[in-house]
């Protein structure tokens, strides 16, 4: 058995990701909470899920929806208390599920006591806990130390009037970057952000922006890729820096004491060699990562600078193949995912959310995911085939700082040009993170059963036709299909979780076909990514294991139909 084939709970387990603000509100304040999550654990378990991942529930001013943490050891009061979290951990374990939390330690909130102390003066004992630099003067004009653009627009440096220096923030100004070069900082992170929760029994972490910890000391300018802008994309400057492997080995030693699992976010890393540094088992860094090639499909150079569906199927296939072949003949592990809280809904992005195609599309994408190797991740509502909010929604409904900053940037740069704003809006309707954050659709009552009062974010208009209650009773629903599919994945875990992936007919722009092979067994998967019928006869000597269509046709695949065959 190769190391990749070695059985582990975190390889075979299916992960269900929960966004606390939007999952279930138990106390009618319009914001989801931990008791709400506990009340739906049986529902989650019924899907066939084994691991629950909770997005940040720590205390936070919520500038970036909890990814700006002001206290790692406290819970954001509208979500509940530490004691609620202890109950959640217990209730997950009681149902034989593992639970992982989000570990956000590239940065803190500017309201964290560490940063408050750091910014007090240049002599503060915690000054060096964050990344402070003097200004650069160009023709007497004060400028930040380099031209890096933050992930949420504008310079990645914020001027601090009181102490006359800039601090680095790769995300919002309210999210200052911690200085991982400082050993004291690393120890404080392990203790406060990690061991505090590991001691309470959690089973691991999803590790936020994990490849950004080491920026190097020089931090040179990024190349100019957007000549009209002052600040430039710098992802290749601040990701995968020189001390990454050293920092992660150190962190891994802490995690190893608890046998905790890790899945790291790994943007701006496009080669297998680059990814393997993090996930090769012998390197002892992370168990697996989310590669970004798949979710970057169709995004413009500046993420939203694109038109909807500006991609072709071979690009998506190549991106997926990259995550699958990573584990072929190596000691690495991988992930299978299409959605999370940072992505628009997969049906709307990669298939069709037109009413006549939504269900078929949801099942077809589910079939693809559940037959891919690696740990499978499902994002709340994906199991129902939830889709993007409609184009008619005004910008006021978009709550994410990433969306509003982008729209504002286009407005400023175009002088309010209606055409530019319309295309910015079209791109946001297709790709914005907000679409993943609309409240979970539980039933067809007002506010979709998420809450009995007006939720913090508008419920998607389609909740009367797409909700958990209806789908639980409907054998033909996306939810029922996911349940069957996850049983199949478990039954054939050799093939689907651990098998070797081979892409077929890579250039085909309509059909995505691949095989999975494990020793003597082999499966063949074919997926129609179009709204038209496609020729596609059953392979010889095969048995149809599962298909998405209610009334399949032998000689052709229906629009958005997917099939998986077992080969003799
Ligand atoms: C990645 C998280 O998934 C995203 O939601 C967040 O905005 C950034 N990291 C910053 O923490």
UniProtKB/TrEMBL annotation:
<dbReference type="InterPro" id="IPR006047">
    <property type="entry name" value="GH13_cat_dom"/>
</dbReference>
<comment type="similarity">
    <text>Belongs to the glycosyl hydrolase 13 family.</text>
</comment>
<dbReference type="InterPro" id="IPR045857">
    <property type="entry name" value="O16G_dom_2"/>
</dbReference>
<dbReference type="GO" id="GO:0004574">
    <property type="term" value="F:oligo-1,6-glucosidase activity"/>
</dbReference>
<dbReference type="GO" id="GO:0004556">
    <property type="term" value="F:alpha-amylase activity"/>
</dbReference>
<keyword id="KW-0462">Maltose metabolism</keyword>
<feature type="domain" description="Glycosyl hydrolase family 13 catalytic">
    <location>
        <begin position="17"/>
        <end position="437"/>
    </location>
</feature>
<dbReference type="GO" id="GO:0004575">
    <property type="term" value="F:sucrose alpha-glucosidase activity"/>
</dbReference>
<dbReference type="GO" id="GO:0033934">
    <property type="term" value="F:glucan 1,4-alpha-maltotriohydrolase activity"/>
</dbReference>
<keyword id="KW-0326">Glycosidase</keyword>
<dbReference type="GO" id="GO:0005987">
    <property type="term" value="P:sucrose catabolic process"/>
</dbReference>
<keyword id="KW-0378">Hydrolase</keyword>
<protein>
    <submittedName>
        <fullName>Glycoside hydrolase</fullName>
    </submittedName>
</protein>
<dbReference type="InterPro" id="IPR017853">
    <property type="entry name" value="GH"/>
</dbReference>
<dbReference type="Pfam" id="PF00128">
    <property type="entry name" value="Alpha-amylase"/>
</dbReference>
<dbReference type="InterPro" id="IPR013780">
    <property type="entry name" value="Glyco_hydro_b"/>
</dbReference>
<dbReference type="GO" id="GO:0000025">
    <property type="term" value="P:maltose catabolic process"/>
</dbReference>
